[in-house]
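Moderator note: this is an archived Q&A kept for reference. The question asked for a predicted structure of one protein chain; the sequence and the answer are reproduced below.
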Amino acid sequence: MLTKKGKYGLKALVHLARMPAGQLAFVNDIATGNNIPKKFLDAILGELRNAGFVQSRKGKDGGYRLARPPEEIRVGHVVRVLDGPLAPIPCASRTQYQRCEDCNEATCQVRHLMLEVRQAIAEVLDQRSLAEMRDIGLDDLGVARGLDDISVASDDLPVAVKA
């Protein structure tokens, strides 16, 4: 699951990707424009700077900008930096694998399904660049079509679909 840290980091990077190349954005503008708490955004931008996604300049005319063109930044890489492995469980992770104590990995159906889930997530996130994410409109997302027609189920109710 994408954490708020991951979500806010992606929103901030999309904000910077919309800026003219080389232009700096103020933290307050990024925070206000994306409904991100400024203090939290400061910490996230620090991590993104340390990972080489953004550059910063201090002072009155300071701010943040992308360190590389948005076409070169893969969404999957950003998510891994901010949120860690893409796998839903540690024994399905490629980058931070941890063996389960309570099962036989060769025969564990949960692990095998989670390996598929991890692969599907990686295929989507690693194929998309920040530029592609920036340029997505709701009409471009086949998945987004009809989202208003689906209601979210609680634990004890089935998913209801409007006719």
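Archived answer notes: Residues 109-127 form the longest helix (19 residues).
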